[in-house]
Amino acid sequence: MEITTIETIPLRHSLPEGRSLGDARGFGRTRKTTLVRLETDTGLEGWGEAFAPGRIVEATVEELFADDVVGLDPFAVQSLVDRSYTDPYHFGGDVFVQSALSGIDVACWDIVGKAVERPVYRLLGGTECESLVPYASTMYFTEEERPLEEPIREAVEEGFTAAKIKIGAGRDDDVERVRVAREILGDEGRLMVDMNGNYRPHQAIETANAIADYDVAWIEEPVPPENASGYREVKRRIDTPIAAGEAHYGRFAFKELVDDRTVDVVQPNLGRCGGFSEARLIADMASTENVAVRPHVWNSAVGTAAAVQFAASVSDYPHSRNVPEPMVLEFDRSENPLRDDLLETPLDPTGGRLEVPQEPGLGISIDEQALERYRSEA
Fold first, then answer.
1. Could you give the CA distance from residue 346 to residue 354 in angstroms, rounded to a whole number?
2. Taking the C-alpha atoms of 138, 140, 145 and 146 in order, what is their torsion angle to the nearest 10 degrees?
3. At the N or C end, where does the chain have fewer CB atoms within 10 A?
């Protein structure tokens, strides 16, 4: 079996004027991503997602990957991943190279799963897993006026027992957001916060200490991703676990996070970290240092499905039974038709459980009409 064609498909969806949302860094109205579709000489088709703009992905694939991918046996995908660091030399750690590679890699694993009639998570070494615990990514900063408690209340009404909220706009605002979320989520709910790298270390530390009584499970990106010394300073001076990784690409960037326990939770995005092949190496490194792995998800349906398969494969080490920290998977509650409309059978996180597809590969079927509806020229 060999790959005969590779296609990049840019997707785009924009919210109406006045309904922008985002984080402490600013608002946005448009979601963009790029799907990668591979076809083989046996008729099998594989889907992946490169979480980057379409024109950049298309150019990167054409310049760096197309010649190696066409004719490749999908079972040999790891060799493609390894070569991305050495040929061409010095390009491997680039975000756009890793994003393009992610789409190709995930699509190859999708094909392999279909070829052997197994879901990807079982190929990655996971034991049987029927469901995960989704957490609502919510309480975004919004352009429109909206009661602060409304989005977290909606998530709880949908059955979510865990949530991550946006903070990072100043200590007093942070405390109020966390207070409201904790009150509505309840004492038993799992609550995380995301600063989106909007603070200097002393600001992150100030807020972390101010919200310490609200039982926060982790603080995500307290400082910018490139501020390694800032992460170390925050880590030394707070007790709440730190999470990061959505803005890190490839095994070597994640090794720096894992070494010396710079963070407590690594968050590879399957559309940017290098795909399943790199994510598996990242999970092994994290497990070796007893660092938790919880994928970051802000993707289309394909990237979300990949995150589900990966999450289902991650080891529970060091837990053996009665796991105190179950695998949780991010599921944002903003409007996202690139996720909700793109599959013939959408992923459903409501009710507090997210079923892991057991069909071969990613376990999904693309709705071709929806694909064309959101296809973009850029």
1. 11
2. 20
3. C
Record the tokens describing residue 344, joined without a space. Answer: 């013939």
Q: Which amino acid is at 214?
A: Y
- Please, are residues 62 and 97 in contact by the beta-carbon 8 Å criterion? no
**Eight-class DSSP state of 70:** T
Handedness of CA 269, 122, 345, 364 (dihedral sign): positive
What pLDDT, in 10s, does the model give residues 12-26?
Answer: 999 888 788 888 888
**Spatial distance between the Cα atoms of 252 and 7, rounded to a whole number of angstroms:** 28
Q: Fill in the amino acid letter for 208.
A: A
Upper half-sphere CA count for residue 146 (Cβ side, 13 Å): 18
**What is 3-117's CATH number, 3.30.70.20, 3.30.390.10, 3.40.50.2300, 3.90.245.10?**
3.30.390.10
Residue 225: name the closest of 263, 253, 197 by CA: 197
Q: Where in the chain is the domain with CATH 3.30.390.10?
A: 3-117
How far is residue 232's CA from residue 242's CA, in Å, rounded to a whole number?
10
List pLDDT tens digits, range 30-68.
999 999 999 999 999 999 999 999 999 999 999 999 999
Report the SS3 class of residue 239. Answer: coil
Length of the chain: 378
User: What is the pairing mode between strands 45-50 and 292-293?
Assistant: unpaired
Residues of the chain with CATH 3.20.20.120: 121-355
Q: At 197, which amino acid appears?
A: G
Pick the CATH number of 121-355 from 3.40.50.300, 3.40.50.2020, 3.20.20.120, 3.30.70.890: 3.20.20.120
Environment class of residue 130 by beta-carbon count within 10 Å: exposed (0-12), middle (13-18) or buried (19+)?
exposed
Cα 279 to its chain centre, rounded Å, is 11
Residues known to be catalytic: 296
